[in-house]
Amino acid sequence: MSRRGRSTSGRLPLVLLLPALLGLAFLLVPLIGLLAKAPWSTLPGRLFSADVWQALRLSLVCATSATVLCLLLGVPLAWLLARGGLPGRSLIRAFVTVPLVLPPVVGGVALLLVLGRRGLVGEHLDAWFGISLPFTTAGVIVAEAFVAMPFLVISVEGALRAADPRYEEAAATLGAGRWLTFRRVTLPSIAPGVVAGTVLCWARALGEFGATITFAGNFPGRTTTMPLAVYLALETDPDVAVVLSLVLLLVSVVVLASLRERWISGLR
Amino acid sequence: MTLYADLQVSRGSFNLSLDLTVEPGEVVALLGPNGAGKTTALRAIAGLLALNGGRIALDGSVWDEPPRTFRTPDRRPIGVVFQDYLLFNHLSCLENVAFGLRARGVDKQIARSEAARWLETVGLSEYARTRPRALSGGQAQRVALARALATDPSLLLLDEPLAALDASTTLHVRAELGQHLQRFEGRTLLVTHDPLDAMVLADRIVIVEDGQIVQEGKPTEVAHRPRTDYVAQLVGLNLYQGTASGTTVTLTEGGTITLAEPTTGPVHVAFPPTAVSLYPTPPSGSPRNTWPAVVTGIEQHAHTVRVRLDASPTGPSTLLADITPAAVADLHLTPGQPLHTTLKATEVHTYPV
């Protein structure tokens, strides 16, 4: 029996259906356009050209490094927010989420003001350690981590708040200190949340453009990641821009698929 | 050395004020209704809750004495069995049992072999690699007990260890738990709302109501000499001593009781008043525990009527039966009236003296 024949709620109202379909088209058509305009015949050659390969490699290295940085700092931060019993916790959480809504360019400017050679902290980094972050690969990683970390923190904190803290109490009565409890009990129980947060964080870092170009500039081989390369190529060789975009699109689809199947629906 | 706990905890309008001692090898049951503060007391002793006043000390070391001293749970020699066990689902049963030893710095191989020995003790060797979620309630409880005992704690804390089990397994698991507690040389504090758990498992019962101790004593004392109405209702059990041989128990005070499962030696025999039925004429068929009896008293409780009977010489000389007010009317109950009583053998519990 067809589903339509058994519908009990009547016809779909046109006033909802029409904008819904329009919205769907609005989201899909650009992607289809990208596929349609792709220079399929010359694609393999362009894909493996030195420039594309360089940008892709830099992007992967930077996004992965930024994600590792986010994990090292973000998971403890999420733990502090969920379990620390801090005063003014909701205010801190609001600050953590600011980079989510902040225009990335503004983030880049802020980073430049703080970590730039004349910046609040950057001045001392330069004077004491001879470290200068702006316009370097390390700068790219910093910019990406700044923008992507909230995704990880929010995801991990949500998982922590959903996890039953009584298991941590049970571990304590068995003689486990807080660090051991965190490693052996808390972390394994929130693993799905951490993985989901990591994937989101990595995808965000990979696509980062505004903060990167502001803070790290655009130097091929050093700071020109894929999104920057796409933007540049659009002005010189649009076909290369399309190829680069396709690669990023593919990565996004893979990320989305892995998220959906393993971690979002069903959780194991 | 004695565990000494003077517990003063305030939670909003609720005040807990208990003075407890537990000797080595002793099982003390904290018995009381839900919300009496039993679990709060247990959490305070475990260190999951800080005292507002008083003192907890064992073996000359102070665990909690506000405002100066507070030892976190991981620095107290305790083992806790939680009401819903809280086994770690990402670890196997063996790893769960080994967790406490590992946390206390025992070498991995030694911890694992010790854990395997404990799983064997509770009869679950074949479940070493199983994840806890695949276990039945009774099995999970045994793993939780093994996990708590594996670190050889000075104090074992049990929070409603049988409450999460279904009725059919409770009897068996309770008997097993009793054996493990008897073998355990440390101190045991058991929190329960079930009088039968307390009667069967504990050497001493402390009855808590509204954060205060209302009565304290051996199970038989508490059962036979309830000091408040609340205690009388709470422990409203028929409790006797006797000598078992097969499925028959000869009571010390005279009379016999037939059991569903055979046992031997000196035993306590307990059954709830609801297990006793009253008939005006001898019941047909052949229920095994059938005694002629005389009504010696009738008390009205909230929803039932408690009838005191004398079933000697074939049965116990003091017997409590709970029946409905309608049954009282049907039977035209009056003191001195002869009746016939039956007792379901399946509701009779025995435990060693």
UniProtKB/TrEMBL annotation, chain A:
Keywords: Cell membrane, Membrane, Molybdenum, Transmembrane, Transmembrane helix, Transport
Keyword Coiled coil: no
Transmembrane domains' residue ranges: 12-36, 56-82, 94-115, 127-156, 185-205, 240-259
GO cellular component, one term: plasma membrane
Topology term for the membrane: Multi-pass membrane protein
Function, in words: Part of the binding-protein-dependent transport system for molybdenum; probably responsible for the translocation of the substrate across the membrane.
UniProt protein name: Molybdenum transport system permease
Species this protein is from: Kribbella kalugense
From TrEMBL, chain B:
Domain of life: Bacteria
Pfam families: ABC_tran, TOBE
Record-linked InterPro entries: AAA+_ATPase, ABC_SmlMolc_Importer, ABC_transporter-like_ATP-bd, ABC_transporter-like_CS, ABC_transpr_FbpC, Mo/tungstate-bd_C_term_dom, Mop_domain, P-loop_NTPase
Keyword hit for Iron: yes
Record has Ion transport as a keyword: yes
Mop domain boundaries: 284-352
GO CC terms in record: membrane
Alphabetical keyword list: ATP-binding, Cell membrane, Ion transport, Iron, Iron transport, Membrane, Molybdenum, Nucleotide-binding, Transport
GO molecular function annotation: ABC-type ferric iron transporter activity; ATP binding; ATP hydrolysis activity
Gene Ontology biological process: molybdate ion transport
ABC transporter domain ranges (all copies): 2-235
PANTHER family recorded: SPERMIDINE/PUTRESCINE IMPORT ATP-BINDING PROTEIN POTA, SPERMIDINE_PUTRESCINE IMPORT ATP-BINDING PROTEIN POTA
Protein's recorded name: Molybdate transport system ATP-binding protein
Naturally occurring in which organism (per UniProt): Kribbella kalugense
